[in-house]
């Protein structure tokens, strides 16, 4: 109820809806593809605070769409939440769904970033895809939604560049 003399603030449907993750705490099968994977989100308990959340996937895998051989990457996903946080088990299942999915390094990296950015609507998001060499050439893919917020501490992603035998 509003205090005397004050108008009640309109409810923000994104913040007031109760979200109970359907996959958390349950045995669920791995999604067959990224399109079938269900990302879930939970309300951010600190929507007015400026902070960075990081997920690292040091054993991300997909398949080369030409040869069918496995490709391996170390993904680092940084985002500054607004109203929503990604639920980590659903993110793990989504990233794991690429394991049998054939697509190029650039497409995998950008697909993850674009889906998360559209689903969470964060203040800012960036991804670093550090792909291990195939054919002797490592491919690193980077993307972000725009300029990072001012006054935000953003640590380095901490993944060294590939050095081979050097």
From TrEMBL:
Main location (coarse class): cytoplasm
Compartment(s): Cytoplasm
Any one GO MF annotation of this record: preQ1 synthase activity
Protein name: NADPH-dependent 7-cyano-7-deazaguanine reductase
Top-level EC class as recorded in UniProt: oxidoreductase
Taxon lineage: Bacteria, Pseudomonadati, Pseudomonadota, Gammaproteobacteria, Steroidobacterales
Domain of life, source organism: Bacteria
InterPro entries from the UniProt entry: GTP-CH-I_C/QueF (IPR043133), NADPH_dep_7-cyano-7-deazaG_red (IPR050084), QueF (IPR029500), QueF_type1 (IPR016856)
Binding annotation for substrate: 86-88, 105-106
Annotated metabolic or biological route of this protein: tRNA modification; tRNA-queuosine biosynthesis
Keywords: Cytoplasm, NADP, Oxidoreductase, Queuosine biosynthesis
EC annotation from Swiss-Prot or TrEMBL: 1.7.1.13
Catalytic reaction list: 7-aminomethyl-7-carbaguanine + 2 NADP(+) = 7-cyano-7-carbaguanine + 2 NADPH + 3 H(+)
GO BP annotation list: tRNA queuosine(34) biosynthetic process
HAMAP family hit by this protein: QueF_type1
